[in-house]
Amino acid sequence: MYELLISNGFDYTFAASLMVSAALIGLGAGGAPGVGSLAGPVVALGFTRFDKPQAIVTSLLIMGQAKCLFPPQRQHIDWRMTLFALIPATAGLIAGISFWAWLIALPDSIAAQQTVKAFCGLVVMAISFDILMARVLQFYKPPQLGIVLSLMLAFFGGILSTVANVAGPLFTWYFQSKGASKDTLTATVACFFFILNVFKVPFYLWLGLFHEPHVLQSVADWVILGLLGLVTLLAWKVGALWRAHASEQWFSFPICLAGLSVGLLVIWQTMG
C-alpha cells in the first residue's frame, strides 16, 4: 500500500479512499451491517483493474470484523445461523474464485468482467430496494426464506462476495429474514464475514493479488494498516451508538442506503 501511496508523489485520493473505506467497515461492524460493502467500490476508484483492490479490501475487512469476537458483541453471535449460512456460502466462494480466476486469465476479458460486475450491482440494488420497501417504509411484510431458498441464496452470496466483494446487503437481508434483532444481526453478520474473508486469503495468495498491488509486503504497509485500524475503531464506536439508539425500523435505513449506493457505484465503474 505504501508504494501505491508514494509511487507518483503522495496520492491524496488513494489515501482518502483508504480512510473512507476503513470508516465504512467500522460503521458496518459496529452497528450498520452491510455498509462495509461500500469499501470495495470506494477503494476501486483508484484502480483500472477490478480484481486488484480485493486484497486490500479483504485485509481491512478482516481487521474491522474481528471486533465481533470480543465482548460485548461476542455474546450476541448466533452461531447456528452463522454456520448454516457459512457452508453454502463457502461453496459459492470457491466457485466464485474459480470462475474469476478463469475469467481474468482470458485475453481481452475486461468487458466480460464489467458485465459480471454490473449484474452484481443490479442484484445488490434489488435486495436493497426490498429492504427499503419492506423494513424502512413497511409497505409490505418482509419475506421469510425457506430452507431451500436460504441455501441457494447463501451459495449465490458466496459467489457475489468473491466476484464483487459487495455481498454485505445480501447477507444482511438474509439474516434479517431469519428474524435477527439489531444486536444479533450486527454481531452475526460481522462474524460471518470475518470467517468468510479469512477463507479468501489462501485463494488471493494463489491468484497473486497480494503482490500486485503490493499489500502488507513491508513494515510501512503494516504501519498504514494500523493507522487505518484506528479509523475503523472510531467508526465502530459511532456504529455502536447508532445501533443502541435507532429503532428497528430506522436501523435498516443505512443498510438499504449503502446497498443502493454500492449497486450504483459498481454499475457506474463498469461504464468507465
Automatic annotation (TrEMBL):
<dbReference type="InterPro" id="IPR002781">
    <property type="entry name" value="TM_pro_TauE-like"/>
</dbReference>
<comment type="similarity">
    <text>Belongs to the 4-toluene sulfonate uptake permease (TSUP) (TC 2.A.102) family.</text>
</comment>
<feature type="transmembrane region" description="Helical">
    <location>
        <begin position="82"/>
        <end position="103"/>
    </location>
</feature>
<keyword id="KW-0472">Membrane</keyword>
<keyword id="KW-0812">Transmembrane</keyword>
<protein>
    <recommendedName>
        <fullName>Probable membrane transporter protein</fullName>
    </recommendedName>
</protein>
<feature type="transmembrane region" description="Helical">
    <location>
        <begin position="115"/>
        <end position="133"/>
    </location>
</feature>
<feature type="transmembrane region" description="Helical">
    <location>
        <begin position="145"/>
        <end position="167"/>
    </location>
</feature>
<dbReference type="GO" id="GO:0005886">
    <property type="term" value="C:plasma membrane"/>
</dbReference>
<feature type="transmembrane region" description="Helical">
    <location>
        <begin position="219"/>
        <end position="238"/>
    </location>
</feature>
<keyword id="KW-1003">Cell membrane</keyword>
<feature type="transmembrane region" description="Helical">
    <location>
        <begin position="187"/>
        <end position="207"/>
    </location>
</feature>
<dbReference type="Pfam" id="PF01925">
    <property type="entry name" value="TauE"/>
</dbReference>
<feature type="transmembrane region" description="Helical">
    <location>
        <begin position="250"/>
        <end position="268"/>
    </location>
</feature>
<keyword id="KW-1133">Transmembrane helix</keyword>
<feature type="transmembrane region" description="Helical">
    <location>
        <begin position="12"/>
        <end position="33"/>
    </location>
</feature>
